[in-house]
Amino acid sequence: MDTLPLTPDSAALYQALIRRDPAYEGRAWVGVATTGIFCRLTCPARKPRPENCRWFASPAEALAAGFRPCRRCHPLGAEAEGDAVLRRMLDALEADPARRWTEADVAALGLDPSTVRRAFKRHYGMSFLELARQMRLREGARALAEGATVIAAQLDAGFDSASGFRDAFARLFGHPPAAMAGGTQGLVAEWLDTPLGGMIAVADDRSLHLLEFTDRKGLAAELQRLSKAAGGRIGLGRTSVTDAAEAQLQRYFAGESGDFELQLTLHGTQFLREVWEELRRIPPGATVSYGELAARIGRPSAVRAVARAVGSNQIAIVVPCHRVIGADGSLTGYAGGLWRKQALIAIERKLAAG
Q: Is 157 in the same domain as 193?
């Protein structure tokens, strides 16, 4: 069966959703932004408004974007039939999506935590615990951004206690969520859904300061440095810059454009900014080696320093550090995960060929 494009025509899919068209069964899924749930197009539940729909070519994409499976149409059914371990854990997550899972909980089910971890990494690019944690954080962040109290947000996110909820956000931003919930002055952080997983965007009303996948190693340290620079006043919400970044990312993943027209604030030394600006000159569909990049900035002997600078980029995709590969053509050194690097390069090769 032919697979759908990454983001197929939304008007046609929405009509299929309204009709509950079985022709799309196993080919498309819909995520509802207002509920955080994703469904089959044949789901009998009340239909969302078209502007609240997000379309996916697989349940894995919907899960990676932070959506929970619907309990009425069970959209994960066909995805995990071939893997008993995956099927069992997805069933458990579907039955209790707010549960705060640990490896001890997995072992209590009679399963080997390392086996479960490998199975989820293989299918979804993240572990089961990472998936469960992202779902909780995502729902909590959205509740706070919409003005919910800390306690209400804690309950929505499924944390065991308010202190546990605050600690989770403090680890990311360097200050508790109560300090972030008021107003949109200065820097604000927002969760953005993409087909490759959730991203955190930090912006003010003039420029984008950070754009990272939420499971990137070192994300907490990056956010804490930004928070310190902002006097511990990063809020939750969005600006016109956030809106523009989201719209341009949607066009990118739809295969419509590989160009980003965003004002950026690059936080780093002059050398780091020099490397990052050179990255932005690499066109979509092209790749360069670390040695080639070092030569381009006139520092051919500084390959290791250039590689470290590439790895410390804080604005993923827009500053395309994924376009730098090993001298032998291998995909190396991407903090967002090599599976994402491969997917981004594939998207851009199609853009360049189109």
A: yes
pLDDT reading at 205 higher than 50: yes
Asked if 235 and 302 sit in the same domain, the reply is no
* Residue 221 falls in which region: left (phi positive, over 0), alpha (psi -120 to 50) or beta: alpha
| 47 assigned to some structural domain | yes
pLDDT in tens, 210-239: 999 877 777 878 888 888 888 777 777 789
- Provide CB contacts within 8 A for 201, sequence distance 6+: 189, 190, 192, 208, 210, 211, 238, 242, 245, 246
Q: How far is CA 329 from CA 249, 258, 288, 324, in A?
A: 26, 22, 9, 9
What does the alpha-carbon distance between residue 116 and residue 128 come to, in Å, rounded to a whole number? 7
Helix axes 270-279, 303-311, angle to 10 degrees: 80
283: DSSP letter? P
Range of 155's domain? Answer: 149-253
Q: Which residues are catalytic?
A: 39, 321
Residues of the chain with pLDDT > 70, as a percent, come to 79
Closest among 186, 182, 101 to 146, alpha carbons compared: 182
Same domain, 200 and 155: yes
Q: Which residues does the annotation place in the binding site for Zn(2+)?
A: 39, 43, 70, 73
pLDDT in tens, 246-295: 999 999 988 899 989 999 999 999 999 999 999 999 999 999 999 999 99
User: Domains in the chain: how many in total?
Assistant: 3
| Residue 29: CATH number of its domain | 3.40.10.10
Domain boundary among 224, 253, 282: 253
